[in-house]
Design a protein that fits this description.
Elements: H1 2-36, E1 39-48, E2 54-65, E3 69-71, H2 73-83, H3 86-106, E4 113-118, H4 120-123, H5 128-140, E5 147-152, H6 153-157, H7 160-172, E6 176-182, H8 189-192, E7 199-202, H9 204-208, H10 214-229, E8 233-237, H11 242-250, E9 255-257, H12 267-276
Bound molecules: ligand C2E and calcium ion (3 copies).
Domain EAL: 23-278
Organism: Alkalimarinus alittae
Protein name: EAL domain-containing protein
Length: 280
């Protein structure tokens, strides 16, 4: 029994080492990818539920590794946030999204907003975020009304006074502000009123079972009602079926995004689909 215990301990230790080593390996690989620029943006259409018209594109990052191929943001964004690499990556995302949206517009694609995801880390560096957005708009010629920023509810909870000031500076540029994954955090109605935000994005986890789960249904209806009473636009994400769409339409949700309409695609594919009349 003693020998076995010792063996288990060693096994445990080795497993720990493997985990730590894997993380270190991924961290080094990510650092290399940042230096080499191994990222692309895919864009997912956002539509007006009532008219079915395109109203925006959400920029979603992908890491293209020369050997492994495409790596999901779910595997590297958390690490990028922990290590601070999200600072450099986030700046790149903003500039690239502005550049590609402007280029699409010049190529005859509809003039809609491009939405970029912003991490809490990017909010905690004074004027940096605002400066990067300002200079990206200036250098690409994209109009501020064609850019929106998606921030998570957790940003609204930390360091409230500073966040309010930051959001006011961003609004001052003329861009749109959306709260992502809404419903998964702890914002209350009275709380939300303090932030100069425009859009609430209902988290996809509530949409998935909306027709079978009365709790999800209640949450979604409450968010839509809350949004309306605060004069906000409500966007449902993860809309996968016609039944989802019809339900949301009936509840008077404003906008939607999801596989029912379109998967995220590179800018040139979006343009091709648009030209072929097969985008939505
Ligand atoms: P998110 O911002 O909530 O983005 C929505 C995610 O849902 C995307 O996953 C999208 O591809 C996926 N999705 C879209 N429609 C559907 C649907 O109908 N059903 C289902 N099941 N999923 C759908 P993706 O692209 O893997 O991104 C995952 C997360 O990574 C994003 O969640 C966001 O939090 C983060 N992320 C992506 N790009 C960036 C970025 O540039 N910066 C930062 N900070 N985070 C990013
Ligand atoms: Ca998002
Ligand atoms: Ca989301
Ligand atoms: Ca999410």
């Amino acid at each position: 029994a003693k020998a076995e215990g010792k063996h288990n301990f060693q096994f445990y230790k080795e497993e720990m080492n493997t985990k730590a080593q894997e993380r270190l390996l991924l961290e080094n690989k990510l650092r290399h990818a940042v230096e080499s620029g191994h990222f692309v943006l895919h864009y997912q259409p956002q539509v007006d539920l009532r008219t079915g018209e395109l109203i925006g594109l959400e920029a979603l990052i992908r890491w293209i590794d020369p050997i492994q191929g495409m790596i999901s943001p779910l595997t590297f964004i958390p690490l990028a946030e922990e290590t601070g690499m999200i600072g450099t990556i986030g700046d790149w995302v903003i500039r690239k999204a502005c550049e590609e949206n402007k280029r699409l517009q010049l190529q005859g694609f509809p003039e809609v907003k491009v939405a970029v995801n912003v991490s809490a880390y990017q909010f905690r560096h004074g004027d940096h975020l605002c400066d990067v957005i300002k200079s990206s708009l200036a250098s690409t010629g994209l109009q501020a009304k064609h850019l929106s920023v998606e921030l998570t509810e957790s940003i609204l909870i930390e360091d409230v006074e500073d966040t309010i000031a930051q959001l006011h500076s961003l609004k001052g540029l003329g861009i749109t502000l959306a709260v992502d994954d809404f419903g998964t955090g702890y914002s209350s109605l009275s709380y939300l009123k303090r932030f100069p935000i425009d859009i609430l994005k209902i988290d996809q986890s509530f949409i998935r079972d909306i027709l079978d789960d009365v709790n999800d249904e209640a949450i979604v209806n409450a968010i839509i009602g809350m949004g309306r009473s605060l004069g906000l636009t409500v966007l449902a994400e993860g809309v996968e079926t016609i039944a989802h769409r019809d339900y949301l339409l009936h509840q008077k949700c404003n906008f939607a995004q999801g596989y029912l309409y379109c998967k995220p695609k590179p800018a040139d594919e979006l343009l091709e689909c648009w030209e072929a009349g097969s985008l939505l």
